[in-house]
Amino acid sequence: MAIWADENTRVVVQGLTGKEGQFHAAKCREYGTKIVAGMTPGKGGATVDGVPVFNTVAQARQQTGCNASLIFVPPMMAADAVLEAIDAGIELIVCISEGIPARDEVALKRALDRSKSRLIGPNCPGIISPGKAKLGIMPAHIHKDGFVGVVSRSGTLTYEAVDQLTKLGLGQSTCIGIGGDPVPGTNFVDVFKAFKDDPLTEAVVMIGEIGGTAEEEAAAYVKAHYHKPVVAFIAGQTAPPGRRMGHAGAIISGGKGTAKEKMEALAAAGIHVVATPAEIGVTMQRALGRA
Amino acid sequence: MKVHEYQAKEILARYGVAIPKSKMITVPEDARAIAEELGGVVVIKAQVHAGGRGKAGGVKLAKNPDEAVQLARQILGMKLVSKQTGPEGTLVRKVLVEQGANIARELYLGIVLDRAVGLPVLMASKFGGMEIEEVAAEHPEAILKEHFDPAVGLQAFQARKLGFALELEGDTFKKFVKLVIALTRAYAETDASLAEINPLLITGSGDVMALDAKMNFDDNALGRHPDIAAMRDLDEEDPYEVEASKFDLNYIKLDGTIGCMVNGAGLAMGTMDIIKHHGGSPANFLDVGGGASQERVENAFRILLSDPAVKAVLINIFGGIVRCDMIAAGVVAAAKNLNVSVPIVVRLQGTNVEEGRRILAESGLKLEAADTMADAAAKVVAAVR
């Protein structure tokens, strides 16, 4: 098993006719993901690499039975795209777009709370269940089928961690980038809950960063409910306060959201906290008794 | 994006927040006419983005128009040094000349996004003039909070709850409720990330107005607010950061000696952390982005090398969408154009890594290759020793 995305996932790509959408949809398909539809308003009836394009997500769902959406649209249109997918009853929505205003994300959060849809992202690399399905922009070849779950606010730092795991022979069940924005659709706790219910996932790598309190909430959840090994790294130990470190959500404000606070909370929850990203793989190997 | 006090007040006033009469000037002599018009007693306030202006001598009371000119002359052109500016301080280029106020009470109002809840939160306290972090540490029970959905707006009953808790009465209470709702509308409609009135002034005659105001805006939403985007003051920003922003590069100047060029914000922070862990200090945060082109890499490299504090450079790229060979070609082109003299350590991993390493090896440049992040950090720290 894996969580949320597997061989039964049927994907509509919103923004398939754009350059990014077409490029990454092709890579996902190469990996074996079932890309069954594209959606671009006004381009209904066209095909991209043999995939039919529809004017609305509802039409795509009706005609192809898609149950997931992968979104590549410009940030100012991204909230609309997510809301359309929610309206069409799409269960898993993965939004790659970066640069969405926080106010739009607040509105998305409200709409998601009233729906049965799950949103991963925005501003994220997506989700991959190695050997089963890839909905995202991560390089597929560094992944390996296995039993370590990975959840992260970062993109390339996740690739770094996955690469270390794979080289040590530790494959992954599912890797999820929850994104670097202040109001993500899915947070660490949501992912831990799903990993807890997944018999395949035997351990979790968690990569957080400065800003907000999502890591502290994850620490509290893990302490109370998740009793398998967890290795965590928090990026931004050397970041100055009050500065946005690339990601919209990576900012220490009012002295809150420092790496130190987060690392202490995670360590207190029994999580193996590493000081540098270079130690993620070997620490997991030790935690699993495979060193 | 940050704006000055005078700009924040201008925006808030559009939504109906009462503010004292004032005018921004850049020439000291202009203070005379304004002081005369405002009745003689005025406050001269330095307009800089950094906080802590009062304690740093950037806010002074003038009893008459002559003194207004004299104080404006003193403050304009001063190097304001506060906790937030660092020891080098910041040059004051603008001052606000504001009508002197009759202070009966000072309160606090502020709005930020509460990320844990996923909604903005309005905070109020009776400790006006104190920084909210200080109040949170010393009198946490004194901070009143009301969450609101920006699409719906703060409701009048929520504003009334705060007014009663702050023991306001009569006309003052009504004015307070009106101002609070206006502030929340301004926050939501301008896509602000922070809106703060500190202090909120209650005058002797019962009026309620914003004596100081601070607003920050969501960079991701500036596209829908061209009027606010036009308020950006490049003089207040680091010149390296301004240059980087022209090329859509995420660059933040730090005070160390090791220049960093990395793809991805998380990996860039992780790289800074591992440098520190090995005993070095990063000179900057620089994310060349997921879709870095050769030209972007060249510009990034040029900007980070233009900082004279940089004694060595660490390039750490995990190729996913970005191909390592393209990054390598960009680095080689930039290094040749720029006549680089400092040691450079390059760590490439991921897509087309072999081709990338070959390009670097055959370039004839003095580049030190590293396999892992730890190896790269150790090598670059050794290079600055």
How far apart the termini of chain A lie comes to 25 Å
Q: Oligomeric form of this entry?
A: heterodimer
What general outline of chain A do the C-alpha atoms trace? globular
| Most extensive interface between two protein chains, with residue counts | A-B, 63 and 57 residues
Largest sheet of chain B: 6 strands, antiparallel
Tell me the helix content of chain A. Answer: 25-40%
Number of β-strand runs of chain B: 18
Q: Radius of gyration of chain B over alpha carbons? A: 25 Å
Biggest sheet: strand arrangement of chain A: 3-4-2-1-5-6-7
Helical content of chain B, roughly? 25-40%
Calculate the mean pLDDT score of chain B and round it: 94
CA-CA gap between termini of chain B = 37 Å
List the total number of helices of chain B: 13
Mean pLDDT of chain A, rounded to whole units? 96
Low-pLDDT segments, ≥5 res of chain B: none
Strand content of chain A: 15-25%
Structural class based on helices, strands and sheet pairing of chain A: alpha/beta
What summary fits the major beta sheet of chain A? 7 strands, mixed
Beta-strand content bin of chain B: 25-35%
Q: What pattern of helices and strands is seen along the backbone of chain A?
A: EHEEEHEHEHEEEEHEHEHEHEH
Can you tell me about this structure?
The complex is a heterodimer of chains A (291) and B (385). With 291 residues, chain A is of the alpha/beta class. Chain A contains nine helices and 14 strands. Chain A has a seven-stranded mixed β-sheet, sandwiched between helices. In chain A, strands 9-8-11-10-12-13-14 form a seven-stranded mixed β-sheet, with helices on both faces. Chain B is an alpha+beta fold. In chain B, 36% of the residues lie in helices and 25% in strands. Chain B has 13 helices and 18 strands. In chain B, a hairpin with a 4-residue loop joins strand 7 and strand 8. In chain B, helix 2 packs across helix 3 and helix 10 packs across helix 11. The longest helix of chain B has 20 residues. The mean pLDDT of chain B is 94.
